[in-house]
């Protein structure tokens, strides 16, 4: 089951990377919950749809370092770049814990931190 869930998540994330939010949502249960730990919780597919429409104006760029699947859970660790409120590219590191039921995404707990990329060429030697 865990390999199947991993494949579902990979397909769902590929849809997001292509700007296909509805493709992503097709992998989600109607009553899914997406929790940004320390911030907010989106309840239901429609709330996720609205958030994605406002946030993913341009498709984000994912770099997955690890994808670990066990039972009904898949954990993804990596980095994401997306446009911030000012339209500038912003980098984040994330750890997402996805829960599946019946072949659908039913829950996401997202731990996301904005990261600063340091320009090492400007530091004094």
UniProtKB/TrEMBL annotation:
Domain SnoaL-like: 10-107
Taxonomy, superkingdom: Bacteria
Protein's name in the database: Nuclear transport factor 2 family protein
Organism: Anabaena subtropica FACHB-260
């Amino acid at each position: 089951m865990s390999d199947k869930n991993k494949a579902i998540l990979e397909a769902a994330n590929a849809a997001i990377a292509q700007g296909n939010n509805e493709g992503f949502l097709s992998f989600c249960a109607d009553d899914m919950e997406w929790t940004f730990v320390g911030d907010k919780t989106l309840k239901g597919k429609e709330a996720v749809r609205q958030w994605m429409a406002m946030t993913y104006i341009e498709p984000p760029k994912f770099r997955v370092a690890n994808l670990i699947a066990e039972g009904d859970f898949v954990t993804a660790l990596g980095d994401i770049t997306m446009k911030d409120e000012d339209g500038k590219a912003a980098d984040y590191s994330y750890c997402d814990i996805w829960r599946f039921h019946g072949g659908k995404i039913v829950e996401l707990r997202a731990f996301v931190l904005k990261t600063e990329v340091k320009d090492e060429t400007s530091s004094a030697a």
